[in-house]
Amino acid sequence: MAAIRRVLLRGPIEDAFIYRSSVLCWTYSGSILRVPVPAIERALARDYGDAGLAVSSLLFHSGGLGATAEQSEVWWRSVAYGSEGSDPGAIEIDLSTVEHSEHRIGIDADDVLDMLAYADRLYLATDGGLFSNELSPADGAEMERATHRIVSPTYAASASYGAVAASCGEAGLQMLFDDFGWSGRTADHRAQKVSDYSVRAEYASGRLLNYRSRSEIELFRGDIVDATAPGSPHDGRVIVGLEASEQEGSNLLEKFDSGDAEFVTSWLGKLVVLSNGLAMSRTLRRHHDRLAVQGDVKTIGRYQGRPVSAVRVRDRLIIETTEELLAVVPSAIESDAGYERIGTGLVVSLRAFPNSKRYRDMAIATSEDGLNLIGIPRESHIAV
Amino acid sequence: MAPTTTTTTSAGVRIGPTAAGNHYLARDDHQHFAHSARNRWNAGCLPPEQFKLLEAAESNGWSDSRAHLWAVASGLEEIGTDGERIAKFPERANLADDWHGYPVSALDPKREYEHRPEPDLVSLWFNSGLISETQRARIKRGKV
Known about the structure:
heterodimer, A: 384 residues, mainly beta, 4-stranded antiparallel beta sheet, 29 strands, globular, B: 144 residues, alpha+beta, 3-stranded antiparallel beta sheet, 6 strands, 22% helix, 16% strand
């Protein structure tokens, strides 16, 4: 089993999101820090030499994409000579020693509850509503005052097909359709309420999954229109006309013993269910215009404690519980516990970036000490 | 202020008065020994400790927009049998009624918001040194 690598960026960071070449951090004092990824790489090389170069390659250059020749060489040498098999624990750099810029963007709220960067725009879900802010490609550029988009307290936000789904609890699921005007029409910046209750929402297999609780799914379907301009590098597909599906979301949970499901999520074509200490999955497929699960229930690992959230990094499931962060051990190489502890302590936020080319081997988690950058080596690395 | 007295009733232990002149009914069905699907106080948080939480909530004005009272123990100590760390004392139908209460968590099934204290209250607990920044953020995100 490949050893998980962890870098702790020590600082007062409550939440974070990695977008293009920046780590965007929300601090406990209510500001945004923009930390260039190359600055973190330089700090790792400065403080840890070859070990810093190797972990940079794993974290920020999935498959070697964009890595320097030196980073790649050190990484593959560390794999080939077996240091990969031992757990080096976390290495730590202090945020104050890493170049970054700080920005105040005028959020009129008590606290940020979720954050998301999508199509060069930052969205902040707060107890004062949803805010958005344009992101300049330049790391040090000033950030303008944020725009207040939704007034209701917003607990989670997700985006795909040019639309943002804002989960506003008892104020429902509120959608910002075609928020970038990709369809060619002038963007309508008003939110539309499509469900009366929402804890969080996910896009999966052309559907929107609205979670009415931690394990209760409400399905929505919409038409996807390809409005990509000729020659444009951007995916211009937009979702329009979202409507509740006649299909019951509970059908998806059949065979999972879902009566005791503690947490449900979808991830890269899989539906993942956490129940009674078992992490299980089935494949999601569109079948005759319905979303269906197929195949046997596969146990992908175990966990201990009360799960709060979960993300997948390639074939590893990372579970946040009320007490700690766990990486489940795939059942094929099952250890006694069925999971390994990552050692972050209590977690405030947990994210992964499966659609990113460079960051797909990484999860990030904020904890009491700061931002944890967690690298999950691919099993193929070990086969070398 | 009248001395605090404790009496046993058919529903549970009655303690009071608080400084505001109210009583607390520690209902048996919310105690650790109950065979109940209800949220239960753990064995380390007996009726006198529950009463102290109510007194703290009342005297510090930890009341939300619906007139429920909320409280936490210092350091966000565990107070419920299922890992709960937040106490809720629901609004009384009549001001003359006794308070009652139970431990809650935003992780309780289908109680994501009902069992999550309002942000202003959480900030008050942080400002008074009862909870850390991390704990404040986790409560607001419904992780406690």
